[in-house]
Every structure is written in structure tokens, then in C-alpha cells.
Amino acid sequence: MSEYAEKHMPIIENDYDPEDFVFVQENIKLKDKVYKQTSFLKDVWNNFSKNKGAVVGLIIISIIIILAITGPMFSGYKYDGIDLSQQSMPPHMPVLEKIGIFNGYERGVDQYAAKGISDVYHWFGTDTNGRDLFTRVWEGTRISLFIAFVAVTIDIVIGMSYGLISGYFGGKVDMIMQRFVEIINGIPTLVLVTLLGLILPSGMTSIIFALMITGWIGMSRISRAEVLKLKEAEYILASRTLGAKHFSIIFKDIMPNIFGQLITMAMFSVPSAIFTEAYLSFMGLGIPAPQASLGTLISDGYKSLTVHPYMIMSAITVLALLMLSFNLFADGLRDAFDPNQKH
Amino acid sequence: MSKYILKRVLISLLTLLAIIFVLFLMLDYMPGSPFNDEKLNAAQKALLYAKYGLDQPFIIRFFKYVAAVFKGDLGLSYVLNKNKPISEMLAGPLGVSIRVGALGMLLGTVLGLVLGIAAALNHNSWVDSLCSVVSILGVSVPAYVFALLLAYFVGFKMGLIPILYSSKNVAKSFIGPMIALAMSPMASVSRFTRSEMIDVLGSDYILLVQAKGVKQSDLILKHALRNTLIPIITIMGPILVNLLTGSMVVESVFGVPGIGTMMVTAIQSNDYNVTIACAFTYSAMYIVMMLIIDILYGVIDPRIRVAKEGS
Lengths: 343, 311
Hints:
A: mainly alpha; MetI-like fold; two-stranded antiparallel ribbon; extended; B: mainly alpha; flat
């Protein structure tokens, strides 16, 4: 053996033993396993519930929605009940005050005791007009959610029909419809919404309208992409061969198959609608007083941010929680509807 | 390639024209008139209308407006700065806005890349979880909420950054808006980098590079990162949109004298011409950036070009 080989050849020892060569599954009888049949929705739920973040999101959303509905009822105050004797009171909660938070202290003074109203409880405090913030925050959440849901529902209807028609017919129709989308899409949403907010009378309908004008494009994109995939499928061909009309192919055969994606997209749109609404309010184009939305509460609280920070904190917390949990929920939903597609 | 670019440019120009039309339409239908002074009588109003050319028919005014816009003349301010050309008023704020936006973008992208790579290398560890938490927070919490929290806790409570912009200390005043604006790009970039990097690291060519015995740092920076970066360009569009929208409110929270603040002031004082001009500037910036991204992406990835030419 040459010197080189001696130096570089590894010395092989008995580094294996007979157990390395045992046959696998030698003593196990292989059988077909029969799984229980599950429905589509159950599949979705099974996939969804594995995603912890999404479940947490769903729970938080449910709690917020319940509070938004019942909060103004059990608080004992009205959202527009002005009480000038209780202006700018800090948060004061019955049980939590014992452990030193939400105890009505601001700058080291118990503001409630100072006014001789220690038995009055404003859970989130009051605003500069003495209105109870707990009531107003949940009232505002309700209005924000309502605006978002209505806007998104309209978006789904318009966007889905537009996308389905554009994708299904293809050719010139598609070309023209897509150029139109491209041009609308070229205008930054917030600029358009701001300008609409300026010319329309302020109020809920105007905000929903402004959100609708720009929101449907995302939906139409998704449904168009899905139609392009599906319209070559064999079951569509079969349907056409049997003489189905375009209308029934589009809305009866294709539409049910893209519903999962659309619902996911809708859940992603809800937080962005809430954000846009909050943004409009921040610009001073939101819901007129005395009604409140999360956005108007934030922009009101912002004015006294350094003096009474609690005024803005409750609304900001709810807004951030809401947007966070909707995003988590939608993430989970997307994976649940389409487990093959990893993002 | 040139056909693709030409098509993109044409569509952008059309969009720009459509925007000018929409803006002009809105300008026309804005409630009230620019001359709301009750002391003016009808004759004086007519004189003012004639002076500003508001008495001519819609179509003529529109084409005059388009011609003027392309010459860079955005009209006169009626309220904020009486009779001052808006293009002069915009010049300063535009520079400030672009600087703040670019700084935020830069900070966000760099942090996002670092975070994303760290998460991908330590897949399923606490770094990975941290990255997910940061990205979900950054995506879902709006920039102006960050701005408000920063202004209160870091600015007011700790006194580390100025709450309001001061022209004496520009560098320090930029820190707050910059961080607030960086959150959303950071979140999207880190999220995307992470998933792309995990994909790339699992591919065959990386195995080959590893087999050749390339150093770990070279492997990531020279071989893996390049392929990760290409798809990230696709998300630059949405990121820029977020940045633009974020900047409008973030600027006014910190009082930065940019286009966003100017637009808010113009809205609140009913100066329609200035509002429209700000909106136009935003849209134009947006369109130009989208155009650049589209072309860039076409250059980098020929498949996109072919797909878009086909459709």
C-alpha cells in the first residue's frame, strides 16, 4: 500500500451490528385502514382548530363582538350622555381598584374621591365631555364593525361578479375589464377615499360607499384568477355539454368552488376596512358626533394624549386587538380552506 | 422587452389622466365655493370667478387643467396661502415626505431582512416565533397607532425623542416617524424573507454549495439571499402603498411638515385646490413607483413579462 493511501484511507472497523439489518414490518400484518368519512366543513374545522393563533383570534373576535353588542347595555350609561360634573375622569373599576390598577388615580390623586363620588364607576374613564368611555368604546366598536362588515359584503358581491364575468368570458371582455381595474387600482385607495369623504355628506353611508368604491378590486382579482383555473376543468366541460347556460355555469358551478377563498379574503378585508374608517375619522372625515367609531374615539383622545392618555388607550387597544385577531383568524382560515397551499 | 415597457408606460399615463379627471370632477363637485366670504356681493363673486377662470364650461376647464398639470402648474391656493402657486408650496414638503418615507422604508427593509434570515436559519426556535409575532403585529397594527404609542411612551414619558417636529433638530425629529413607518415594511419583508429563505435553503443547489464546503456566511449572503430577494420585489408594491398611507397620518401625528400634514391642514381648512394637488402628488408618486417596480420585475424575471404580455 502506498504511503498516500495509508495516510488517507479511513480505517474501517466493525461499526455496525446485526440489528442494523432487521427487516421492517416483518411481523406486522398490513391492513387497509378505513377512515371515517368527513364533510368539507368538518375538514376545514379540523385544520383550523390545529392552528392555535387562529383559534385565539376567533375567541378574541367573539368576545369583542359580544361586548360590542352588550357593553352599552350593561354599563348603565348612554353613549351620548354628557355629564359636565364628571369630565375627564380616569378609569375606575370595582374589583381591579383593590389591586392598584384602574383605581381612579391620576397624578397621584384619587379623582373620584376628590369629587366625592367614590361610588361612581367609569370602567374606562370619561372623555372631556364627561361621557362614559366604556359605553362609547363598545358603541364605537359596534359601528366600526358594522361599517366594515357591510362594506366587505358589498365588495364580495361586486368583486365576485366582476371577476367571474371577466375571467369566464376572457378575450376582449376580459381585456377591457382588466384595463379598467388596472386604472382604478392605480389610484391610491386612501387618496380616493379621502376625496370621497370630502365631497359626500359625513355619515355612515358615505363611509361605506367610499370603502366600497375601492374594496372590490381585491375580490375581483381573486375570483378572476380562480375562474381562469376552473373554467378548463372537466366538470365545467360536462356542464356545458349538457347545455348549461353561461349564467348557470358561472354562478352554480364555479362560484361555490371559490367561496372558501372569498371568505378568507373577506376576513382579511375586514381589518383593512376598519383601518380605513379609523383613518378617515382621524382626518376629520368620520362619523359625526355624538355617535362614535373607533376612529373618532382615537382622534378625540389624541387631542388630550399627553394630559389624559387613558382616553386614547382603550380605543387603541380594542382597535389593535381587533385587527390582530382578524388577521390571525384569516390566516388560519386560509390554511384550513386550502391545506395544500403553504404560505 | 421594449414592448412590455412601452405598454406599462402607456397604462401608467392613462391612469394618470384618469386620476386627473377624477380629481377635477371632485374639485368641481366639492361643496361650497372657494369664495365663502359673506361680505362679497354677486358682482364681486363674478369678478373673482372670472379672475380664476371658474366661469368657463367644464370641458374647457378640464383640458386647461390637464395642460397646466403637465407643465407643473397645479393652480393657486385659495385659503392656506392666498394666491401662492401650489407647486411652490409643495416643493419643500415633498422633499421632507420623501426623506421620511425613504428612511422608514430603508430601516424597515433592512430590519425585516435580518429578522427573516435569522428566523429561517433558526427554524422552529424562539427566534422564529419572535419573527412571527413581530410580523403579525406589524402587519395588523396600523402605523399611526405605533406613531401614537411612540409619541406617548418614548417621546413624552421617556423623553428620548421629540414629540413634535422641530426644524432646529431635524435628525432627531425624524426618528419617531421613521420607526413608526418602518414597522409595516419590516413585518412584510421579514415574513416573506423567512418563507422564501426556508424554501431556498431546502433546494438542491444549496446542498451542492454546502457540499463544496463554502463558508456559512458566504452561503447565505452570496448564494441563498440572491434568490430570496427576487420575489421580495413583488411585495414592494403593497409595501409602498402602506408606506404612503401610513405617512399621511404619521406625519400629522409628529407634526412633520410633509405632504401628509399639508393635506390634512388643507382638508380641515377647505382649501380644495391644495387638497387636490396633494392627492395628485400622492397618486403620481404611487404610479411612478409601481411602474418602476413592474419594469424591474420584468427585467429580473422574464416569466412575468411573458405572462403579462400574454394577458
